[in-house]
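REVIEWER CHECKLIST
Item 1: Sequence provided? yes
Item 2: Single chain? yes
Item 3: Sequence as submitted:
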Amino acid sequence: MDITKPNSSKKLLERSITAVVTIIVLLASAAPLQAEPSSEIAANQAVPQVALPGNPPENSLTGWKIKVGAAALFAPAFTGSKEYQLMALPNVSLAFKELFFASVKEGVGYNLINSNGWRVGPLVKYQFARNEDGGTPFRLGGERSTALAGLGDVKGTVECGAFAEYRDKPLSYKAELRQGINGHNGMIGEASIAYSGVIKHDGPPLIYAFGPRATFANADYINAYFGIDQTQSVNSGLDRYHAGGGLVSFGIAGFMSMPLYGPVAVSLFGGYDRLAHEVADSPLVKKRGTENQCTIGVGVTYTFAL
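Item 4: Structure as written out by the authors:
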């Protein structure tokens, strides 16, 4: 009989609790966080960075690892929309050894700490603009939404902040805190837990990850996307609304990836998010949208090293 399993399970549970508490402290101490919606098109979050086995390939001379590809995504026209569109999104990322990374999903960051399962460092992300005419360069199919008419545009935003991630296989815990320096001018927080693994069988291995996630923001951020002032109310016909801060959305996401041959891999990903009351109570969502948000997509990537 294997008598080590209970102790191993206990240690895993203790480490998990420690990681969650640490991340909560990081978020809570950084600012009086109030909450955030996962904004426009979810283009910043929808394309997964497929975790193929190995670090930079053996023939890497400089430590640079690059991924290029694209993904097709079926998702709401905007966060809170009940109308769905088919979109094409770029999937480009690069990383230098275990220090620097940049990608559509993860933003641009630097690992100031990268040891003992921890990654901590500064982070910059870009939040795509939300246009009241429903236009987006990513749309391939589906009707252009008219639900935003009269609400004005929310400009694209550069968000600066930091991230903290702890990995204790098969679990990983991640939190981010970012401040918009233009555009929405709000503060954003995100937290997630992922369970990952590899299924081996005859043929290429199947890599998977899934888990819960939550998004937070302050009132400035939420009102930029879901608040309705007097002018917007007159122009749109929607009632005035001013939101507070707090939990914006919570849900679950996951992906599966399989190498096709060599450096080429195909992935399937999706998620479900429920908008919390500060967002769900907005007339934009109650009268023209829905608090239930689903996404599903497929992507292809090619990985190489320099």
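Item 5: Key structural point noted by reviewer: The radius of gyration is 20 Å.
Item 6: Recommendation: ____
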